[in-house]
Design brief:
By secondary structure, the protein is α+β, with helices and mostly antiparallel strands. The protein folds into three domains: 76 residues, no CATH class; 253 residues, Type II secretion system (T2SS), domain F (Receptor-associated Protein, Up-down Bundle), CATH 1.20.81.30; 104 residues, SH3 Domains (SH3 type barrels). The protein contains 18 helices and nine strands. Strands 8-7-6-3-9 form a five-stranded antiparallel sheet, with no helix packed on it. A two-stranded antiparallel sheet has the order 1-2. A two-stranded antiparallel ribbon has the order 4-5. Helix 3 packs antiparallel against helix 4. It is elongated, with a radius of gyration of 43 Å. The termini are far apart.
Length: 485
Amino acid sequence: MSKKPNQKPGKNSKQISFLTKLEASQERNAFLENFSMLIGSGMDVLVALDASLAEARTPGMKQIISGIKSDIENGEPVWKAFQRTEFLPAHIISLIKIGEEAGRLPENLSVISIQQQKESSFRSKLFSAMLYPAIVFGVTIIVGILISWFILPRLATVFSQLNIDLPLVTKIVIGFGDFLSRYGFVAVPLAILAVLGLFYYLFIRPKSRVYGEKLLRFLPGAQRVVREIEVARLGYVLGTLLEAGLPVLEALRSVTDATPFVTYQQLYGHIYDKIEQGNSFRNSFKDFADIDKLLPVPIQQLVASSEQSGNLAKALLKIGQRYEDRIENTSKNLVVVLEPVLLVFVWLGVVAVAVAVILPIYSLVGQFNGSQTASSPPAPTQDLSAEDVKDLQNAPAPRSQDPAFTESENGQVAGAATGQGWIIMVGSEMVVSVKDRPAEAGQIIGNIKSGDSYFAAEKSNGWFKINFRGGVGWVSQQTVKVRDL
């Protein structure tokens, strides 16, 4: 359709904002499908656009359709009107242009609709394959942060009151929880922004997406899903464009624009340069490093042989069909492969927290059991025989093993106090508990053992106050031998 003289084009791409195109992208596939169906039924282009405009739901889509209709009414070709919106990829514009010039616009629009459905299917399968591990990973991180933020600080308070030496892993976990309790309202939002920024840098920013693609290679099964999706896209897009009559170089440029993966863009750009120089697909494959990681060897051989036989378009379409069938199974297997990896990741987090909590408790229980063993119930003095009591009363005071006491030349024990007092002695093969106050309910603060003797200057309710190696404490009259000074 030729352009009418003395008429200006309608709304062009410069008048359509990025947000408008983003809003309209949600309806792109539905618009192309309806438009191709209406054109295929023999309806005029402008009438088909009016019908599509009535079906549009978003203001952005309505603005784009109105702009296309306005350009066509002003004499622009259909492909040029679509190109002005920058709403469709370059290879789709090429198909519309070829179809319009060759009188095959309805057929090419139908092909475009099928291609868009397949592109949507490819993106959906890749998204669904990565959704499960992303959800598990995200939930694990969120739960870990909540535990560290609200539970670990309370454990830190408990452990600090126990006054025990904490293991390194406990100190790290408790320190992280303490950090979140103090600065969590600032640190957590900043961490979320950092993760979003890293995601943008690795998977959205054009100049750095190659690093994200390299990172995906380390994820089990992900590289295989990406390769199969890209091989299927190559087969459908390149095969369809060649079958529609598009030159090889222009078709390769369109394939480069269609793929979102930087490494495949580099591959197609390399093939484009080689074919432009007069080389074949076979030679182009040989000169690209790591070609086997991007395209399987059988696919390379099939493309090279079909190029020589003149059946490249049909061979590519068969490749696309074959690999589209594979993607479904591979995406399901990816979830199965990633499950053990995710379980190990979750297990490591749970074990780290469990070990950090259990080790101090285990150490405390060990100390408690040791104290209970050391302070086993001593034999009371009433179990002593009459001879032992008589010997104890008549025996001279033994040499004190405590440095607070000395024995003079006449055999008397000299202590910190003079005048009235008592010599406290421990019976043979006995261990006596020393408590912090003169009562059975007192806390054990140490032990004295057989052979030791101590000076007591104070007595209260059958308890004697002594100065021993662990400090000052009280021993019961029922557990020791006592001699007046």
